[in-house]
Design a protein that fits this description.
InterPro entries: TNP-like_GBD, TNP-like_RNaseH_C, TNP-like_RNaseH_N. Residues 446-589 form the Transposable element P transposase-like RNase H domain. Helix 9 crosses helix 11, helix 13 (500-513) runs antiparallel to helix 14 (550-566) and helix 20 (696-705) packs antiparallel against helix 21 (711-726). By secondary structure, the chain is α+β, with helices and mostly antiparallel strands. The strands form eight sheets. A six-stranded mixed β-sheet has the order 19-18-15-20-22-21, with helices on both faces. Strands 3-4-5-6-7 form a five-stranded antiparallel β-sheet. The radius of gyration is 51 Å and the shape is elongated. It has six domains: 27-112, no CATH class; 115-205; 215-292, no CATH class; 347-436, no CATH class; 466-616 and 826-864, no CATH class; 619-802, no CATH class. The protein contains 27 helices and 24 strands.
């Protein structure tokens, strides 16, 4: 125990003006008012230090005259004197009074402090190594350091206690989560030294998670950067800075730590960092394998340049340069070798032999060109591909897109026949696995598919100026009511599935009518994009329906228009469909006035300067007109067509056939047969039968063999014959070859055929209506309606004539050189339906699954798909041009 001597001045009674200990003056002011000097040696006073009050007292070198000295011995770390007091009784009493005043002063100060400041003062006494205490008016900070050297240190952790006595722990400047085990059993408020001491005691039981400080992993990511998760695409770990940390005998700088690291653990590292350690080990192993493996050869890789890094692109350019240089050297070497071989072993031909050899080679070449004169013919292409296969083999063969399309079409017809033809060895064809990648480039699904839109957009990029005007064809095909399990998606295919808006409407109707929640589809609605001046025929979307209605068709149609106009950048000018009641009602939904005339156009919302025209399919109109004629005094006998006091009767045609065509050797109508006359349910649907019965040949025969009684029947046939010729122009040269100017392409907006259609043809039916109204007989409205064509047929004729004439004029005014009106018909869609029914043989009622897959295949086949010979459209067997456009393939 250190012994300290203190000299205390005791004033006499004469010194009443001096400050007294019993007064209210503080002890500190009293002591500082005295003359104090530090004593040294035996002749001087000793130093007294009270650590609790931070007060220092010192005696003078020489005591005053009336003063006496007493010696006190005490422990400087005790709250009171431990040694016995020496001196006179008066001196001892005076010293006790000084201590009592000092204690009273401290109690007064403590009563004025807040609980938070009191805790700060108490912690200043209680906190010891290894912690450092720092206090402010609002928080208490307790810090633990990493001791690197005498001059270097870094913060290991810190405990922050705010003015509300809530504690937070920060490890390496990152807050410890409340889910950490360290908080288990600890209080929520730390308002006493006991609770703070308990927290620090718990901290001593935990250690800082070391993460993954291995030097071999630090190159994976730089300091401050993270490593992303390949599945969730989020940051899973990061590399923290250098804290010069230590953990036992382990010293480390930077470490890779999980973003969910516990920071404080009872062990070496937390479970999250341990999981990241396995990930880092795998990445390091892959990096080592890449480093030890030979450099990647980018020359023959098929990776897109947009998916390669800059360093890889530079490496590829360098490799290509080296390969070109190497190949050039190899070519020069082979040239020198061939030249040397020719000089050594070559045979020199004389003039005659040289001429004969040239003639032989030219003869073979001429024979080949004579067999296939067109260098772009499919026959020559097929022969070249077979020769190429023999040279490169099956592994090095790259088939031409036209061969791929043709093989897809053949395999779609019959997979067994295609495999037998390929396995026979007579010809070499692509394997089924190769074809699968092309036919399944897009997902087989109903509705509007993004991949299909992208595929159509690639086709649209090739079209410029007026060639990007298209039309929409839509119709339904009857399918089998069946459910098919899709093994790829696990779905049952076959239920009704329309557009999202239409599905909601359908569900609402089912809820109102208490019908079945799901219905098996009976029809398939197919939407096709048809080019006006191009050969574009693209099946855009399909929907499984239970017989479409106008309210369901409306949102589907306009969504298709929106996608084509906005995403694909095609301009929709018209839409074509048959005369079904749902389609007619769909047209009427766009009516803006109360007129009785049918609607044939509406404003295009994507272009205010362009209308969108409605067209009723011309071949269907021809069939309905023929059907009305067939029921006039024949078949169902529901009509008695009459005009200008004469009948228009089917019996006139029956009489012509039976008297002059059926038995005569030289028939005036060679194409006319009993099938044309005696119509059945199947023959009612055939367009060619209707076109041949309403032809100019039949009209000429009637006019030649009979009197004026058949004149109105002849006039009826001639009008529809020219109507069909004008609106079914299919080729640039058909009119010239058949010597029929009505089949010539349209090249002038003032073409007289356009005027005839809008004036003479439509005026013929207006005159017919007036004749019936003015007929002087007592007839009901139903009887008068039976004297002319059906209202639906007449409306369809008006819609089609007005719309097609407007479209022809618009396209010619937009820059088109010529227009073929066949492109406004629905024949491509009928051809498409024929492929559905011919899949894998006769399949008149395909399922939704079949139709869905066939649409995907036919998008890849394109124009290679030949229309069926016995289909409901005219067969066009013109040579197919060779298309070198690369087909997209599934990767």
């Amino acid at each position: 125990m250190e012994e300290i001597s203190v000299a205390v001045s005791i004033h006499t009674e004469d010194e009443k003006d001096e400050p007294c200990l019993n007064q209210d003056t503080s002890l500190l002011e009293f002591v500082r008012s005295e003359e104090i000097s530090i004593a040294s040696g035996e002749d001087k006073g000793e130093l007294l230090l009270d650590e609790h009050s931070d007060h220092t007292y010192a005696a003078k070198e020489q005591p005053f005259e009336n003063e006496k000295t007493c010696t006190l011995e005490f422990d400087c770390h005790a709250d009171f004197f431990l040694a016995p007091l020496e001196g006179t009784e008066q001196q001892i009493t005076q010293e006790i009074e000084i201590y009592a005043v000092n204690e009273t002063h401290h109690e007064h100060e403590e009563a004025c402090l807040s609980p938070f400041q009191t805790l700060c003062n108490l912690l200043q006494v209680s906190i010891s190594d290894p912690y450092i205490l720092s206090c402010t008016d609002t928080e208490i900070c307790i810090v633990e350091l990493y001791q690197i050297s005498c001059r270097e240190m870094s913060i290991k952790l810190s405990v922050i206690i705010d003015s509300n006595f809530c504690a937070k722990i920060y490890v390496h400047r990152k807050e410890v989560s409340r889910d950490n085990d360290i908080w288990t059993g600890l209080p929520t408020k730390y308002d006493s030294v006991e609770f703070v001491t308990k927290l620090l005691s718990c901290l001593s039981c935990f250690s800082v998670c070391v993460g993954n400080p291995d030097e071999e992993y630090q190159y994976i990511t730089p300091v401050g950067c993270g490593i992303s998760d390949k599945v969730a695409n989020t940051i899973r770990s990061y590399r923290e800075g250098n804290f010069s940390a230590t953990s036992g005998t382990l010293s480390y700088g930077s470490t890779i730590r999980s973003v969910h690291c516990s920071l404080l653990v009872k062990g070496k590292r937390c479970s999250q960092c341990l999981a990241d350690r396995r990930m880092l080990r795998k990445r390091h192993q892959r990096a080592v394998e890449r480093h030890n493996s030979p450099p990647t050869n980018f020359v023959h890789k098929t990776v897109k340049h947009e998916n390669m890094s800059r360093s890889n692109l530079i490496e590829k350019i360098n490799q290509q340069r080296d390969e070109i240089k190497s190949m050039s050297s190899e070519i020069e070497k082979l040239k020198r070798k061939c030249k040397q071989e020719i000089l050594q072993d070559g045979v020199t031909l004389d003039l005659v032999q040289n001429i004969e050899l040239k003639d032989l080679m030219s003869t073979c070449n001429d024979e080949f060109k004579k067999a296939y004169p067109d260098p772009n013919s499919v026959q020559r292409l097929f022969w070249e591909q077979q020769c190429k296969f023999e040279t490169f083999g099956k592994n090095g063969m790259r088939w031409h897109p036209m061969i791929i399309r043709w093989c897809l079409y053949m395999r779609n017809k019959s997979a067994k026949a295609y495999d037998a033809m390929r396995d026979s060895g007579f010809i070499q064809l692509p394997s089924a696995r190769t074809l699968f990648d092309y036919s399944h480039y897009t997902k087989s699904a109903l509705g509007f598919q993004p991949d299909v839109t992208k595929m159509l957009h690639e086709e649209a990029k090739k079209l410029e100026n007026y060639k990007n005007y298209v039309g929409l064809l839509f119709d339904e095909i009857r399918i089998k009511e069946d459910l098919v399990y899709d093994k790829h998606t696990g779905e049952l295919i076959g239920y009704c599935d329309l557009d999202s808006i239409s599905n909601q409407i359908m569900n609402l109707e089912k809820a109102v009518n208490d019908s079945k929640p799901t219905q098996v589809a009976k029809f398939m609605l197919v939407i096709m994009v048809r080019g006006i001046t191009t050969n574009l025929k693209f099946p855009f979307a399909g929907f499984a329906t239970n017989s479409i209605t106008a309210d369901f068709l409306y949102p589907i149609f306009w969504k298709a228009v929106s996608i084509l106009e906005c995403s694909v950048k095609l301009k929709v000018l018209f839409c074509t469909c048959d005369g079904a009641s749902a389609n007619r009602k769909f047209f009427q939904l766009h009516k803006l006035d109360n007129s009785r005339e049918p609607v044939y156009f509406t404003k295009n919302p994507h272009d205010e300067n362009r209308n969108l025209y409605f067209i009723s399919d011309v071949p269907h109109l021809l069939k309905t007109a023929r059907n009305c004629l067939s029921n006039s005094y024949s078949h169902k006998k529901t009509r008695q067509l009459w005009k200008r006091e004469k009948d228009i009767s089917w019996m006139h045609l029956v009489r012509l056939f039976e008297e002059h065509c059926e038995q005569d050797i030289y028939s005036p109508c060679p194409k006319l047969s009993r099938t044309h006359i005696d119509l059945t349910a199947f023959s009612y649907m055939k367009v060619n039968l209707a076109a041949q019965i309403l032809s100019g040949t039949v009209a000429n025969a009637l006019e030649h063999f009979y009197d004026e009684s058949v004149s109105e029947t002849v006039c009826f046939i001639r009008h529809f014959n020219r109507f069909f010729d004008c609106l079914n122009v299919r080729s640039l040269f058909e009119g010239r070859n058949k010597r029929n100017p009505d089949l010539d392409p349209y090249t002038d907006v003032n073409d007289n055929r356009l005027e005839w259609l809008t004036t003479s043809f439509l005026g013929y039916f207006e005159e017919w209506r007036q004749n019936i109204e003015n007929r002087n007989i007592a007839a009901t409205a139903t009887q008068k309606a039976a004297m002319t064509l059906s209202r639906q047929t007449l409306d369809g004729l008006k819609i089609s004539v007005k719309s097609i004439t407007e479209c022809v004029k618009f396209m010619l005014g937009s820059g088109a050189d010529f227009i073929l009106t066949h492109h406004f018909n629905q024949d491509p869609l009928e051809q498409h339906f024929g492929h559905y029914r011919h899949k894998s043989g006769a399949n008149n009622n395909p399922t939704v699954y079949d139709v869905r897959n066939m649409m995907t295949t036919l998008r890849a086949v394109g124009s290679q798909a030949l229309q069926p010979r016995r289909g409901n459209i005219s067969v066009n067997r013109e040579n197919i041009p060779v298309d070198n456009t690369k087909l997209p393939r599934r990767r």
